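Hi there, hope your week has been kind to you so far. It would help a lot if you went through both lines with me. No rush at all, and the record is pasted right below:

***
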Amino acid sequence: MQRAVSVVARLGFRLQAFPPALCHPLSCAQEVLRRTPLYDFHLAHGGKMVAFAGWSLPVQYRDSHTDSHLHTRQHCSLFDVSHMLQTKILGSDRVKLMESLVVGDIAELRPNQGTLSLFTNEAGGILDDLIVTNTSEGHLYVVSNAGCWEKDLALMQDKVRELQNQGRDVGLEVLDNALLALQDLGAGSGGSSPGNSSSEKPRGEAGRAGSQGQPAPGGRPLPVWE
């Protein structure tokens, strides 16, 4: 957690809360919720914690929702998305595995380049959206939605076993890291216009905060810092 907090402080970004429509307040009758590594940071900065997909996440800080929204659109903000499913796809056949599950052209990704894609079923129906990054460390880094955690993980695990039974070199590892998402889309150029959407820019660069030799993303769509 200290690493994640130090990253926020060093970069000077404002940490924002999740939209209220996605969350509901905590109650003592609910099951015990998971906490991200930034949980104490949220409380220390006045975060109002709510339940979302089995996690305790901030829905609001001291600023109003309007002020937070305008700050993000006019400048940029960090969001704690550590609750999302993070996986490594390993092995020399990792691209074959991922391209059998998603619609993206994973083989064409440059090192540390990521793309927004979709998990699909055998009939081509959409199961979930995700981001796949071709890391320079010899694995694919996959981030998908917390609300589909069990479904997405089972889908990938089943495909791993299927390919392993065929003698393919593939593996999967679930990560438990702090994860921060940087918004607005024009963060490197002073903010974006309201009509500027990520649908026009489906790919982005990713890097680990504090990793030597890996530049932090700047002004890129879907920049994710781990």
Remarks:
- The two ends are 12 Å apart (CA to CA).
- The longest strand covers residues 126-134.
- Helices lie at 2-11, 39-44, 65-74, 94-99, 149-165.
- Residues 32-83 form a domain with the Gyrase A; domain 2 fold (CATH 3.30.1360.120).
